[in-house]
Amino acid sequence: MTEATLSIAELLDESKRSGRIFNFCAMGLIVFGMLLYCVESYGPSLSPRVERTVDTLTYVVIVLFTVEYVLRLIAARDKREYIFSYSGMVDLASILPFYLSAGAIDSAPARALRLLLIFRLFRLMRFNLAIKDFARAFESIREELVLLLLVVAIMIFLSAVGIHYFESEAQPDKFQSIFHCMWWSVATLTTVGYGDMYPVTVGGKIFTAFVTIAGVGTIAVPSGLIASALMRLPSQRRTLSRRPSRAHGHRRRRWSPRGRTRPN
C-alpha cells in the first residue's frame, strides 16, 4: 500500500478518533439525505426557489457519498471483497442511480431509482453499539425465532381455516376464501383488530376469542426471548474479556512470607 492509501486507511480506521469523526459525519450525511428526500415528497407544492435549493443540496450529498465510496474503495485491502460486501453494495446502490440517470434529478426514473438511497439507513446499524447488541441478541436466538415463525405461520393458517368454516356462509363477501381469511388471522393474532372483518356467528365469536388469547401469548414469546438474550450480553462480554489474559499464559500468583510473589 502506498503512503496515500495508508493515510486514507488511517483516516477511516474506526478504532481511532479520526475514524469515529468520519463515521459520525457519514451518519449525519445519511440523515440529511433522507430529510432532503422527504422534502422532495411535497412535489409541486414546493416553491421554485426551495426546489432549486433542494436539488442543489441533493447534488452535494450525492457527490459526498461518491467521495466516501471512493475513499473506502481505495483504503480497502481487498477491493473486490469490499465491492461485493454488504456495505460496499449499499454505498454503490445509493449513488449509482444518480449517474445512470445522467444527473437528471427531476426525471421520474431517477426519483424511482433514488429510493435505493433509503438502504443507506441500514448502514447506521454498524455505527451504534446498542444496535450491534440487538444484532447479537437476534443471532443468539436465531433458531428459536425460526421455530416461532413456523408456529406463527401454522397458527395463521389454522385460524384462517377455522374462521372460514364459521363465517363463510354468514359473510361470503368478506370471508370469501381461506386466503381472504388470512388477513383476518394476522390482524387478530397480532391483537390489532382493524374491524374491517369481524365474526357475527356464535361459533365465529367463540373461535375468535380463543385466537385472540393465543395471539397475546404469541406476541409475548419473542419479546421474552429478545429480553433474555439482551440480559445475557453483559455476562458474555465479561467472559470474553477474561479470555485474553488466560490465552497469553498469565498465571495466578500467591503471596510469599518473604514479601515476594511466586507462581502457582
Automatic annotation (TrEMBL):
Matches recorded under Gene3D superfamilies: 1.10.287.70, Voltage-gated potassium channels. Chain C (1.20.120.350)
Record-linked InterPro entries: Ion_trans_dom (IPR005821), VG_K_chnl (IPR028325), Volt_channel_dom_sf (IPR027359)
Domain Ion transport stretches: 20-232
Alphabetized SUPFAM superfamilies for the sequence: Voltage-gated potassium channels
Region (Disordered): 241-264
Record's keyword terms, sorted: Ion channel, Ion transport, Membrane, Potassium, Potassium channel, Potassium transport, Transmembrane, Transmembrane helix, Transport, Voltage-gated channel
Transmembrane helix among keywords: yes
An individual GO BP term: action potential
Entry membrane topology: Multi-pass membrane protein
Gene Ontology CC terms: voltage-gated potassium channel complex
Localization, UniProt: Membrane
Transport among keywords: yes
Domain of life: Bacteria
A molecular function GO annotation: voltage-gated potassium channel activity
TM segment ranges: 21-37, 57-75, 82-102, 108-125, 145-166, 206-233
Protein name (database record): Cyclic nucleotide-gated potassium channel
Organism name: Kolteria novifilia
Lineage per the UniProt record: Bacteria, Pseudomonadati, Planctomycetota, Planctomycetia, Kolteriales
